[in-house]
Specification:
Layout: H1 2-16, E1 20-21, E2 23-24, H2 28-43, H3 50-62, H4 77-104, H5 111-138, H6 147-172
Antiparallel strand pairs: 1-2
Helix pairs in contact: 1-2, 1-6, 2-3, 3-4, 4-5, 5-6
């Protein structure tokens, strides 16, 4: 299970960062492949992880064009829509990851981790949903009147992506054979 979480951690890191030098050096398809591999390993212990495997595989396929195009500089409506679609797909993958982890820690002795998972789930989904709402309505809003809202939501999205990586690191500390509490880092 530790290896699966390590693969998912690195996969999400590949999706989170973008280093563009001609092509994307930390390509999203590689990140989705690592999440797919981690989901495949988790499926051996938790059948519900099959959904993670499926959505990560689809993410691997739909993110291929983004390797060769600098999506952060895209001004064409088609590429902007594609970028927004990738953002939504990332949230879908995380939704299934969090659902898998939630079902995996239903045993006794995981109350702190369960509470932390619930907190990250609510904040992550809420912040990313706010960004999706902003993206949906930003086409119709002219000028720079909403730039402070965009900056606030953008920094919140980054903070939640980091919180997810920290959660994955906390899940790696769990002894999946013997339920026990992990130390709270609060």
């Amino acid at each position: 299970m530790n290896k699966a979480l390590r693969l998912i951690f690195w996969g999400y890191l590949f999706i989170f960062f973008r280093i563009q030098i001609g092509i994307d050096l930390l390509a999203d398809p590689i990140g989705y492949y690592l999440i797919y591999s981690g989901g495949r390993l988790m499926t051996k212990h938790f059948h519900v992880a099959k959904k993670v495997e499926i959505v990560a595989f689809i993410g691997m396929l739909i993110s291929l064009p983004g390797v060769f195009v600098n999506l952060s500089e895209a001004i064409d409506v088609g590429w902007m829509s594609y970028t927004q679609g990738l953002f939504v797909w990332k949230v879908i993958v995380v939704y299934y990851l969090l659902g898998t982890w939630k079902s995996a820690i239903q045993g006794q002795g995981y109350t702190l981790l369960r509470d932390r998972l619930k907190q990250v789930y609510l904040l992550y989904m809420g912040v990313h949903f706010a960004m999706m709402l902003y993206m949906a309505f930003s086409f119709n809003i002219g000028g720079g009147s909403w730039s402070s809202v965009f900056l606030t939501i953008s920094f919140s999205v980054i903070a939640m992506d980091i919180a997810l990586l920290v959660l994955i690191a906390a899940l790696r500390k769990v002894d999946w054979k013997d339920p026990m509490e992990i130390k709270s880092s609060r």
